[in-house]
Amino acid sequence: MRVEDDGEEDVVGVRVALVDDQQLVRAGFRMVIDSQPDLEVVVEAGDGVEALRLLRSTTVDVVLMDVRMPRMDGLAATAQLTAPDHAGASTPRVIVLTTFDLDEYVLAAIKAGASGFLLKDAPPEEMLAAIRTVQAGDAVIAPSSTRRLLEHLVTALPDDQAPAPSHPGLAELTDREREVLVLMARGRSNTEIAGDLFVAEATVKTHVGRVLSKLGARDRVQAVVTAYECGLVRPGT
Q: Which of 87, 98, 191, 234 is most buried, judging by how many CB atoms fall within 10 Å of its CB?
């Protein structure tokens, strides 16, 4: 989308792709997204194969990706779309669309490179906020419904009796960075973490950046999954 304002330079809005095998779902999402002056749906696809084909020739910023689709599901499509050697015009950020009964698929999608997940029945304003959050470079883990989903999906992770996998990056974290990671895993925003730790938000952003770097995580979601997998955080703690 390009917005012109009395001869001023055009501003390119956020370009969105909808990937879902249900045409009515795509139509509803498109209506909500296209109602926003800074967002525009530029690609629609009914499965992963079609999505990958279209995204090779179309620049997209954010992809809303369903999980269960014919031919190629959202997991495989997400993995290919976010792979370093993907031949597309760009590497968009992916938000996985899901329901509570697909938790194990969500975890796999996050590991494959998705930047967040969103419940299909989330309010429109939550979906719009998720698109803008992901486009800004953050990950979608803050909304309360997503926090509940995050805690729910760890049932797919090893139980308390199984030895937790180790991650070399955890040993490199300072005490404060580990503290920040725990708060991230509890769904706290940078502003909330700053309040919890009585530090400036800019300081929190620095800590978050170092946590991501040391863990080799693409974004907050991947860091949070690592925290759960390694037993640093448990549901309800």
A: 98
Please return the burial class of 84, using the count of CB atoms within 10 Å of its CB with bins 0-12, 13-18 and 19+: exposed
Q: Supply 143's token pair.
A: 């909304």
Element (H, E) at 182: helix 175-185
Amino acid at 236: G
**Burial of residue 209 (number of CB atoms within 10 Å: 0-12, 13-18, 19+):** exposed
Mapped onto helix, strand or coil, the DSSP state of residue 99 is: coil
Q: What is the reported pLDDT for 133?
A: 83
Domains of the chain by start residue, with CATH = 14-144 (3.40.50.2300), 157-230 (1.10.10.10)
Distances (CA, A) of 161 to 56, 130, 135, 157, 212: 45, 35, 39, 11, 28
* 41-93 tens-digit pLDDT: 999 999 999 999 999 888 899 999 998 899 998 888 998 988 766 554 568 88
- pTM for this entry: 0.68
* Residues comprising the chain, all counted: 237
